[in-house]
Amino acid sequence: MYGVMGFCRLLSQILTDKQSYFISRISRNVNEIYVIQWYLIPITYILICFFAKNSVFGDFLLIIVSVLEMAASVLLSFLFMRKF
């Protein structure tokens, strides 16, 4: 536990103000990101099944899809929180 706290302290000293602000906004939007991902995951699955019929994705492609889905959910959470 103390190693994690020390790592977080070191990270807070290294990051710039803009990077710290971005991370704190993501931390505030964790619940929204979670809910948005519950909508995005089935939609992504349906689209993959529709366009890539009976195709099996490799590890690299799954990582790309996961990163894109995470980025989309973070952006959508920012837009959602800006509206409300």
Key terms:
84 residues, mainly alpha
> How far is it from the N-terminal to the C-terminal residue, by CA?
36 Å
Question: What multimeric state do the chains show?
Answer: single chain
Uncertain runs are none
Characterize the largest beta sheet: strand count, sense, and whether it forms a barrel: none
Number of strands: 0
Number of helices: 4
- What's the shape? extended
Helix-strand string: HHHH
Q: What is the C-alpha radius of gyration, as a whole number of Å?
A: 17 Å
Percent of residues in beta strands: under 5%
Structural class: mainly alpha
Mean pLDDT: 86
How much helix is in the residues? over 70%
Helices, strands, pairings?
Blueprint lengths: L1 H13 L2 H12 L1 H22 L7 H25 L1
Describe the structure.
The protein has 84 residues and is mainly α. 86% of the residues lie in helices and 0% in strands. Helix 3 (30-51) crosses helix 4 (59-83). The mean pLDDT is 86.
Quick recap:
The protein is mainly alpha-helical and 84 residues long. The chain has helices spanning 2-14, 17-28, 30-51, 59-83.
